[in-house]
Amino acid sequence: MIRILVADDHPIILSGLESLLRETEFVIARAVEDGAAALAAVREEAPDILLLDVRMPRLGGVEVLRLLKAEGSRVPTVLLTASLDDGNLIEAMRLGVGGIVLKEMAHVRLLECLRVVAKGGTWIDGCLLERWREAAAHGQPRGPLDHLPPREQQLAQMVARGLRNREIGEALGLSEGSVKVFLHRIYRKLKVGSRTELALLVEHAAR
Fold first, then answer.
1. Which alpha helices (H) appear in 75-125, and where do they start and end?
2. Where is average pLDDT lowest: 11-15, 33-37, 84-88, 133-137?
3. Which one of 109, 138, 167 terminates a domain?
């Protein structure tokens, strides 16, 4: 059996996945409800495939993928999403995502995607693949966060999602003191004076 770790905070999605995978070569080894729990579960379970919702509490799917790649993890990752903006799409592709499936088509395409990814391939929903090609060809405008190193970008995104220093430290394997040092460095580089200003800057850049 091919063991899948699922991270999604919607019980109805999990129920649908369980029905879809029943009597196939795939089994849900564990299900968690947010990105931070997914990070911990990957380290504990060593699943064959990680299936992530893009939008989750604490850490989203692309953020989890970014953190895992920074750790050197090679677990194949599939993103399940209702929608994905060009910035996250380009980053997911850059990070080597194994697959991206739109939720509205998951009932007919997810199994195909999982089977391709399980064999070491890549499966991206056709419309998203076309969008990625167009966005990559034309280039994406650089925002203020693009000038930060990856770890500082992660911290800024987590602050914007409302995570406190302790939660950020737990997700990134840092002490609260180290998180504070990183944040003050970010404040200085982006010329902001508080968490609120940083969060507003991140939200504006994402629009």
1. 86-94, 106-118
2. 133-137
3. 138
Residue at token pair 């699922």: 6
Look at residues 17, 10, 34 and name the one whose alpha carbon lies nearest to residue 163.
34
Cβ atoms of residues 79 and 101 within 8 Å: yes
Rounded CA separation 203/40 (Å): 27
Mean pLDDT, rounded, for 106-132: 90
Q: Do 12 and 57 contact (CB within 8 A), yes or no?
A: no
Residue 29's pLDDT is 92
Q: Which helix (H) or strand (E) holds 100?
A: strand 99-102
Of 90, 106, 138, the residue at which a domain comes to its end is 138
Query: The CATH number of the domain where 161 resides is what?
Result: 1.10.10.10
User: Helices in 22-124 by DSSP H: which ranges?
Assistant: 35-45, 61-71, 86-94, 106-118
User: Are 19 and 6 within 8 A, CB to CB?
Assistant: no
Residue 47 phi, psi dihedral angles, 5° rounding: -70, 165
pTM: 0.70
- Residue identified by tokens 């998951």 is 106
Spatial CB neighbours of 33, under 8 Å, sequence gap ≥ 6: 7, 8, 9, 56, 57
CB 58 within 8 A of CB 171: yes
* Same domain as 56, residue 127: yes
DSSP conformational letter for 52 = E
The DSSP bridge partners found for residue 123 are 99
